[in-house]
Amino acid sequence: MNGQRRANTRRVRVGGREIELTNLEKVLFQEPGITKGELIGYYGRIAPVMLPLIKGRPLTLHRFPGGAGEAGFYQKKAAGYFPEWVNRVSIDLRMGRAEKRMVQITCENKATLIYLANLACIPHVWLSRTDRINYPDRMIFDLDPPDSGFEAVRYGALIMREILMEAGIEPFVMTTGSRGLHVVVPLDRETDFGETREFAAAIAGMIAGLAPDYFTVEIAKQKRAGRLFIDTYRNSFAQTAVAPYAVRALAGAPVAAPVGWDEVKDKRQKLTPRKYTIRNILERLRQRGDPWEEMDRKSFSVRSAAARLRSFSRT
DNA sequence: GACCTCT
DNA sequence: AGAGGTCAACGCGCG
DNA sequence: CGCGCG
Ligand SMILES: [Mn+2]
Ligand SMILES: [Mn+2]
């Protein structure tokens, strides 16, 4: 026999690429007892829906080698030991005054997704793609409740949608798998991060102005005073948001799950931020389809939305 | 989690 | 073969 | 500039 075949280890071939999977029996999520093997299996099955949503986006890996409940750390730079077939992209950071070049990765195929799953990481993605890296194709409103209360999040998302519709935008929505929702807008990549963030902040400010007892745009925890924080800072260069269909490092292995607006609106559907997990999201997709199917056929202009909003508030 | 060095 | 140490981010806005 | 924050 050449090489050791540890019981817990397996070599697989995915799209012609060889991957060594390790510690497959290791329990990464207590409670239901979800192993790394099951986690990897999930990413393999979700790949067809997930890959189109993350391709071309530099990744930040939020790694949890000890599983949910243990300490994690972030990794942005491509490690030398990553397989050569993992796509690398060189990125120039303007760190304050200094400048720095960093090599990061993107996930272009199923093999990479499986490889990353074996690293026990949560993929977070940029809001722009490498072929036009300074111009986001996503605008994200991150609704962060102060506690586990979800009602304010639901209302916040619905109000957000109303205002965006007035501005000519049809937003999409997903649970984060943690405590809130992301309201997501596909953009035409004609507006840079700064201007996009400014527009997002203006929208968020309108909502905080309408219901200041419930919503705030203050990032400082002391100033939030129990209110839901509408976080628009994700809309910045080299910043990330949890990838759709990523598995969070939380009990039960909840996933960031694109959902339909009907689910947010209709209380009887009992949407919660952790409703969908590694164990039920595929069934949801089979039964109800992909709620974001239309996303890549749409794109909105921050500039015309801003113009529409201005003329609307003048009247 | 992966890699390296030391025993 | 196994133990043990080491490494793994960054932008924004405020005071 | 350092710090809180995600
Ligand atoms: Mn959030
Ligand atoms: Mn946030």
Describe this structure in words.
With 315 residues, the chain is of the alpha+beta class. It has two domains: 2-132, Alpha-Beta Complex (DNA primase, PRIM domain), CATH 3.90.920; 138-314, DNA primase, PRIM domain, CATH 3.90.920.10. 29% of the residues lie in helices and 22% in strands. It is built from eight helices and 16 strands. The strands form five sheets. Strands 13-14-10-12-11-16 form a six-stranded mixed sheet. A four-stranded antiparallel sheet has the order 6-5-9-15, covered by helices on one side. Strands 1-2 form a two-stranded antiparallel sheet. Helix 1 (36-54) crosses helix 2 (110-118). The mean pLDDT is 96. Bound molecules: manganese (II) ion (MN) (2 copies). One manganese (II) ion is lined by residues 142, 144, 176, 180. It binds three DNA strands through residues 22-23, 60-61, 63, 65, 73-77, 79-81, 93, 95-96, 102, 118-121, 142, 144, 197, 219-221, 229, 231, 233-234, 236-240.
